[in-house]
Design goal:
alpha/beta; TIM Barrel; Jelly Rolls; 14 helices; 30 strands
């Protein structure tokens, strides 16, 4: 039964995205592709895959404990840094070769100037370690196909083609081992813009998988199976040999992959098989072999550059970056603050996830000053508050207005992002007895006075000024096992309580946005019967201003009913190319349990809206 489930979810989920076929010829090609991938999955499941998963828990234990890692995008593209022939190139700097349609010959001319003489492997590893990071992943080969190590498989590499002549991957692997850091590689297995047989380069080789959408676009291996032997040749001659080279030479703890959709499922499975045969203990991320509903990796990867996290079961990892590009761009100054990442780290830990924070070093081998400043801010916080992140896990505590909670044994950690100005931190839903409450950074553990409010709610007397404006951690030492209710608790003295759509009770049919800034919405609101609900509790009567935030493009038409308890407001959906903040009105709520329901009143075109959140703002 387990084997059948893996077969059905992986293969049919993989083909769901392009199941619309027309004509007998299209159907034949579709069925041939599906049969090929079914055969590959069947062979894997019945031979090596399930055997490899017997050591999964042992293999991934260090990763689960790590919580926080460093991701580095660094290569030839770091030298031009978002510029080509005197022109600014927008978007991901590491995609320079693709965006500017640069030939292999012209790209080699850039490589011949790449000389990162200021590169210091020990400094890179130690900077990450001081910031609380416990694993380090770097691009051994990105989509440009250029190996950042001394590859014997291809001379398109840093030692053969640059004046640097050193192997930075070897130096980083040694430094990581010396300083107790888990280490691994990003390897672009599906995209390779220099190889004449690999997907991606449609400007020089006219290959599928690129921006021109040649040979059926993303479905090229279904529409044109005659092209598959070329991709297989690339996988056999370069991808698998280089991955084996990295495994046998550097003995990484983890391998990280991306863009598996550029190759058929059967090829991705072959690559995973080669990895497991070479090193059964290496952790493999979830972007090598996956479909819409399953993957063969050791954990799941959620969206890149998240601001909020959608619900995920099992082991997962989010991949933010300090600005908007992964590789270094001298034009990208959209850096977030260290406070943003400190809170994001706590949010990930509170949901049993890992955070893999990306930076793009410069072409000379140094970190950008803005990135170093972010690391420094994280370092200062982690040095005092590490206990609240590492060796902790998700709690059964209800969601709170002011932040998130983590737990380690009999200690509950309150991560307070929004500090109460009146000196009272309200906490809801804790049914356990408390031994002691204190600030984590207080070495003497002075007791903070608490006052019970009944029903598991209480408040803590705190200073009116936050000890740490990013994230003040309060420890609640428990007398016994943690017991709590699951009803969202709304503090009436928090400036804004955000009820995220990600945390709502959703009826069937909704999908989650990827969690990026202004994209942490639920979508697919296409039917009248679909509703979004939140239940919550307050300890005091309070009047609130209510704001609903959503996206709705110019083609959206509709209206909805916003109901809170017995009060109901009908609103028309507004349209804009930006996030809409719609004022529902001012509503008086009594002490106790409350219910919010949002129901469609009419849906004229496409979907009702893409809902991000409801905000409750106390009116004093």
């Amino acid at each position: 039964m387990k084997k059948l489930f893996i077969l059905s979810t992986l293969v049919f989920g993989h083909f769901f995205a392009f199941a619309q076929v027309n004509g007998d010829e299209d159907k034949d090609m579709f069925n041939q592709a599906k049969d090929r991938d079914l055969k590959a999955v069947d062979e894997a499941v019945n031979t090596w895959y399930l055997a490899s998963m017997k050591t999964h828990v042992q293999r991934i234990k260090w990763w689960r404990d790590a919580k926080f890692g460093m991701f580095i995008h660094w290569g030839v593209y770091s030298l031009p840094a978002g510029e080509w022939k005197g022109k600014k190139v927008s978007g991901y700097a590491e995609h320079l070769m693709r965006k500017e349609k640069i030939s292999k010959k012209a790209y080699l001319e850039v490589a011949h100037q790449f000389n990162p003489v200021l590169f210091d492997a020990d400094k890179w590893i130690l900077d990450a370690k001081k910031a609380g990071m416990n694993y380090f992943i770097i691009t051994a080969k990105h989509h440009d196909g250029f190996a950042m190590y001394d590859s014997k498989v291809s001379d398109f590499n840093i030692v053969a083609q640059t004046p640097f002549k050193r192997d930075p991957m070897a130096e980083l692997a040694a430094a990581a081992k010396k300083h107790g850091m888990k280490f691994g590689f990003y390897y672009s297995h599906a995209f390779d813009w220099e190889h004449p047989d690999a997907p991606g380069n449609d400007w020089e080789y006219k290959n599928p998988g690129g921006d021109l959408g040649l040979y059926g676009g993303v479905n090229w291996y279904v529409a044109h199976p005659e092209l598959l032997p070329k991709a297989i040749k690339y996988v056999d001659e370069k991808a698998i040999p280089q991955i084996k080279e990295l495994l046998s030479r550097y003995h990484p703890d983890i391998l990280w992959f991306d863009t598996p959709q550029k190759l058929p499922l059967s090829e991705n499975i072959r690559i995973l098989k080669a990895i497991r045969e070479t090193d059964p203990n290496v952790v493999v991320n979830g972007r090598l072999v996956r479909s819409a509903s399953a993957n063969f990796g050791d954990y799941k990867n959620t969206a890149d550059r998240p601001a909020e996290f959608y619900p995920v079961e099992g082991d997962w990892e989010a991949i933010p970056t300090t600005n908007e590009s992964y590789g270094y761009s001298k034009y990208d100054n959209s850096h977030k603050t260290s406070d943003f990442f400190i809170q994001l780290l706590a949010k990930a830990a509170a949901r049993n996830g890992n955070l893999l924070l990306n930076m793009g070093p410069k072409g000379d081998g140094t970190f950008d000053a803005k990135d170093s400043q972010i690391l420094s801010g994280i370092e200062k916080w982690v040095a005092k508050n590490a206990e609240s992140i590492y060796k902790t896990h998700k709690t059964i505590m209800p969601l709170q207005s002011w932040g998130v909670t983590t737990q380690s044994e009999n200690k509950l950690y309150l991560h307070v992002f929004d500090w109460p100005k009146d000196g009272k931190l309200y906490v809801g839903g804790l049914k356990s007895k408390m031994d002691k409450v204190y600030f984590l950074t207080d070495v003497k553990k002075h007791t903070l006075i608490t006052q019970a409010l009944g029903d598991g709610d209480f408040y803590i007397n705190v200073p009116k000024k936050a000890p740490d404006t990013a994230n003040t951690v309060i420890v609640v030492a428990l007398n016994g096992q943690l017991k709590a209710d699951n009803l969202h608790y709304v503090s009436t003295n928090t400036a804004v309580t955000r009820l995220l759509a990600f945390d709502a009770d959703l009826s069937n049919g909704f999908k989650f946005g990827d969690g990026k800034t202004d994209r942490f919405y639920v979508e697919g609101w296409e039917k009248m019967g679909q509703t979004v609900k939140w239940d919550f509790r307050t300890s005091f009567p309070q009047k609130f201003k209510i704001i609903i935030k959503y996206l709705a493009d110019k083609d959206a038409e509709g209206s909805y009913n916003f109901k809170i308890d017995q009060q109901e407001v009908k609103q028309n959906v507004l349209t804009s190319d930006k996030v809409i903040s719609q004022n529902i009105g001012e509503i008086q709520l009594a002490k106790g349990i409350h219910h919010i329901n949002i129901n469609p009143d009419s849906i004229s075109k496409n979907e009702l809206m893409k809902l991000l959140e409801v905000q409750l703002i106390p009116i004093n």
